[in-house]
Specification:
Radius of gyration: 30 Å
Low-confidence stretches: 5-10, 226-251, 266-272, 292-297, 553-561, 577-598
Distance between the termini: 59 Å
Largest sheet: 7 strands, parallel
Number of helices: 28
GO molecular function: metal ion binding; phospholipase A1 activity
Helix content: 25-40%
Number of domains: 2
Pfam family, one: DDHD
InterPro entries: AB_hydrolase_fold, DDHD_dom, PA-PLA1, PA-PLA1_DUF7131, WWE_C20G8.02
Length: 662
Amino acid sequence: MRFLFAIRRYSTPSAAIRWFYATDIPVSKPRGFDYKQTERPRKFIPFARTDSDNLEAAFLSWQKGGSPREVAVNEDQLFDCNLEQMIMRPAYWEGPAYEIRRGLWFLDNMPLPAPISDQLEQKYRELGPYNESQASNEPLTAEITSEVNLYEREGKKWPFEKATDFEKEDKIAVFKDHKTAFMISKGSKVGKLQIKNFYKLPAQQVLGADTVTRGYEKAEPKKTEEAREEKMDEEKDLLTSWMKSWTGQASNERFQKDMEADYTSPNFIANSGDREVDHLILCIHGIGQTLSYRFSSINFAHDCNNMRRQFKQLFTQNPKYVKMAYSEDEIARHKNDGKLSNCKVQVLPIIWRFDVDFSLDKVFDEYEQDGHLRLPTLNQINIDAITPLRHLAADVVMDILLFYEPRFKQQILSSVVKYANAIYDKYMERHPQFDGKISLLGHSLGSAICLDILCSQPDSVEDIDPQKHLKFPVENFFGLGSPNGVFKLIQGHNIRARDSAGRNNVSSPKVNNYYNIFYPTDPVAYRVEPLVHSLLAGIKPETISFEDDSLNSQIQSLAELPNNLINNEYLRRAINFAGLGDAAQLGEKQDKNPKLSEQKEIPDNVRKLLEGLNRTGRVDYSLPQGYFDIDLISAVGSHIQYFDDRDVIGFLLRQLWPPKKQ
């Protein structure tokens, strides 16, 4: 609800206006969350200066009779602000919406709500405490109607469960000078008697009154100890989060952490805006996204934000990537203007799970002759004694089962195609100059979804149906922790390039380069190359090097050590502690796998099959990882850490801009 008061025109002093957005309490949450806002946000942070200026310009244009428009804000303009509703929400994916405020009058460095701020500004201009002619020993006062009473006058109910004294009590504003006012409760007899004293005291010495100031002033940074106390834990234990949040209400703290950490860093905002992008990566999640209702640690949009941040960080830290992405002329021309900090990669999530309705209480709209439902809900066939575990199974395992039930599989594929095309259309609308390449990145089950979609793409552009097919060509398909190998083996399918298929039982993706990337310890990942040709089962996957070049040289030295020395218990502990267990185990693994111990030469006919799927002549790529401490926890952990791994990001950068010799 927005209250606008007519403001009389005076020659009033200008004030620094800054727009803010809330981060702690969302106005709304994505579909699937049973959420209604019951409390008001208390924490607001300022938009970047450019975003704030754009919002102010759009707001003033609207106030002068123009039509309200959405304003793109934050890192890479990933959010839209709606000035009519005064909210901000993600532009490309479903996420929580947050309140925004125009900061003119402030209380404790937080912008006051519009109903109070507008009244203060109106009285400020009427009384003119900034005019010398108005200066006297008599205080300038004005009555300010509380927000709760404003709602009641409109015949509306206060929308929150509680209201603070500041929100429900009418106030008397005592204007001290051109930028300060004291707010005391209208019903306070003591306050009224003390108005003259309030007027004479410095602002910081006034007791019994709220001191409000006009114009934005940057807050002083908090002391280290205070900041440490307010800092939230980086990660929440999965079990703790599960037990704490099993009610189905998602944690507002999780969303707050994402908003404050993912989009507000000045370093990343500087490398954003309408920047040049050569590669747009659309990411498709795998199983278990409905867990995000309950677990604060599961949030695919946040994973993609991490990946985007890693791209930007790694690009600016390693000059070799600048040389890959920019020509020599560009490097010489923009050496000192900051343009070379742009990694030219954009990462956006596709979140499809909310479109597939197979929840615990899903009702199948089919009836028996006696009028009863033909099928029960999933909740009704649960065993009560282990209901939480059944919920977990419904959230995770059920996604895989649904994908291989034809009716739900088509829903999943249609949902991903719909969102991918919608994101593409919106991105092209905002960035009509984009003529770069588009890649798909699928994690876990998401990689199986990607492969099926790419295999269904027609050869001719004229045959594309936007309801069934992607509107755009796909340059690269990156599968992370992918079960495609076992899925296609069960189907009895080989995987071949589109132009070399030529027979039944072959899956042929319409893509220029297919990458199957995995950790050796990932229990969900399988190889793909043996499905290209069975001879490749005897060829080791290509190894992805460490992003840190110094580690690669250390690994080479370790690999040359005698096996009996590597197997020494104390040396093994030291090597593992240093994070170099992969190399130390290399000799031992080769001895135990004689068919992989010697790299065989790939026959020309088989190599051509691989080159049809990837210009590098390989599809399977194994990430470096230690082998000494393999257990269930580390195995599960390896499946979910791809988006945070610098080795993954570095490899993707090298494939997006391959050497010319490739």
